[in-house]
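1st attempt posting a full record on here, be nice pls
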Amino acid sequence: MDYWQLLLLGSIAGFTIFLGLPVAALQHLSIKKKGFLNAFAIGILVFLIIDIFSHAWESASTAASDAFAGKAPVGSALLDLLAMFGGLAIGLLGLVWYESKYMKKPIKEQQRHTLSSASSSSLSAADDEITLAGTNRMTGGGRGEHQQQHLLQQEVTAYRLAMMIAIGIGAHNFSEGLAIGQSYVSGAIGLAILLIIGFGAHNATEGFGIAGPLTGLVKKPRVRFLILAGLIGGGPTFIGTILGSLWDSSIAYILFLSLAGGALIYVSLLMYNSGRRQTTNNILMAGIFVGLCAGFLTDLMLVLGGA
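the predicted structure (as tokens):
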């Protein structure tokens, strides 16, 4: 397999995430259907959390065991463990800080802040999308202003959750891209191909995870926002494939896995808390179960392939 073919397949593996994003455009859903789709997304995220930390901890604990047995430098093991717990802290506590600083603002303050400055961050890009849409709807008069603000607040939360999920999945997919690139550069071409197939299938289900919070909104999500979320979630697979074929770093691999795991723990708990208020426990658990099954079945492709 030529290098350009590796890059092409790596990009395909990442951008299959767009296959699941159109679910966000579904409208006029019943409360039960919307609750089930959100729970399905939670199930996929829970699977990703299990998968992410199993790989990250396997690498970190192996380094620690080798260092304890005198087979590897102690400093390398300490750096791997630092990457493990440091990435978890950044992914989990960093989003706690973000929520306390930005997500608690009153809706009118969010509008003024978004319209007065153009932020370069991905989360602010999500705010721009929803704020512009909400402002256009609210300038038509004072009727139903309270209800409109309530709906706008729901959309702000949904868009931010979707973008947080995309960022967490993007960090996870970056580590997957590193694995593809490192398999290629080590000469394990067959393994690289299997990883591309398996990760591509995974990313298709991850698109549902991003779309979950956006399903059933009053207004369809903007195509521009969905494209942005897809690029943030799937693009790092391609970038990781390039860097992995040039640079081998267990520290970067562990760091991005644990960072992604921490971020996904945060957003999955937010979605679960919201789901408990919106639907019955039976529907919530059924959706989570189906999402978990979807995650494990796509992962089974790699296991059966010997990867």
